[in-house]
Amino acid sequence: MDQFSTQSLSFNSTNFTCTTPLLWTKEATEDRRARLIACSVAVFTHTAFWLQLLFCPSVRQKSMQWIYAYLVTDILLLMRFFFIYIVRITATECEPTKLWFYFVCYVEATVDNYLNVLEVYMLLALNICRYIQIAYNKNVYQLHKKLLLVTHITMYVSTAFSFIIQFSVKWARLDIKFQDSCQVTYTNIYIQVFNIITAFALPILLNVVVIYMSARHVRLTSTLQRATHVSAREKYNRSLVIQFLIFYIIWVALWSPNVILFQIAGGGTLTATFRLLNFIEIALDPLIIAALDVRFWQAWQKFGQYVRVEIVKRGSTAGRIGPTTTRVNVVSFKTVQQQTTNI
């Protein structure tokens, strides 16, 4: 794991110069300014979304666990970015410890890809659960709680295990550019093909198949019931398919370029542009999910009604004349004086 493609660490030298290997150059900082803006906007959108979850119990449902797990990975991606950004603009040590240096580099190089791979499989799991709900009218979240828990754990552990194996057998290594970036590079084409298949092609293909199966079931059911009437359940199932399809198209368009180029290039201007698209997608995620899911619309409507009622109450209370706290035998005197003053 101690191999670098550009240059090796050497903190001890007869002619000592302060290299500050973790500190970004001015150019490197400027290159990430657009990503900083996108991540700052994402913090605002995600904060608004999670406040809604805090104040609206109606959206706290087990059936939304994959959506919330997905949004948690978004938050972890934002935390990873701000951690690296803060460290890279404040790390003025000439000789940081080897442990700290490698920790920062591995977080910068691997955590981003790890979380992005998790997201594609989370959306696949969400899509499969919705298909079972649509086709078989079964509540997976009530009937298979243990299976869902095992799926969560397997997903997180197996993805991390894949990264560890690739570094352990030297299929992947760190590409360290002092005062710029730490990236992952792969030593042969086979592991690149494997990663593209497992991290992109396979889950995307499975998602397309499941979406097609869900849409086909909804279309066949609607055709059979057209002679009579379309039930509320069928309308809800159709909305689920349309919602996920819209979200998935936007998500793939903004997410996939970063993942594919990460496996092929591992750096460069084009990768920076695609990572910016990835952070824009993170900023849009809460807005898209809230806009497409009727449960969030209903929660916002209830919250809006509550705010309007409170404003009306406060306005009517402010317009009233408060009761006096003076003695009874002088009340009539104050009333007459108040009328005279108003005239």
TrEMBL record:
<feature type="domain" description="G-protein coupled receptors family 1 profile">
    <location>
        <begin position="45"/>
        <end position="289"/>
    </location>
</feature>
<keyword id="KW-1133">Transmembrane helix</keyword>
<dbReference type="InterPro" id="IPR017452">
    <property type="entry name" value="GPCR_Rhodpsn_7TM"/>
</dbReference>
<keyword id="KW-0472">Membrane</keyword>
<dbReference type="GO" id="GO:0016020">
    <property type="term" value="C:membrane"/>
</dbReference>
<feature type="transmembrane region" description="Helical">
    <location>
        <begin position="67"/>
        <end position="87"/>
    </location>
</feature>
<feature type="transmembrane region" description="Helical">
    <location>
        <begin position="34"/>
        <end position="55"/>
    </location>
</feature>
<keyword id="KW-0812">Transmembrane</keyword>
<protein>
    <recommendedName>
        <fullName>G-protein coupled receptors family 1 profile domain-containing protein</fullName>
    </recommendedName>
</protein>
<feature type="transmembrane region" description="Helical">
    <location>
        <begin position="147"/>
        <end position="169"/>
    </location>
</feature>
<feature type="transmembrane region" description="Helical">
    <location>
        <begin position="189"/>
        <end position="215"/>
    </location>
</feature>
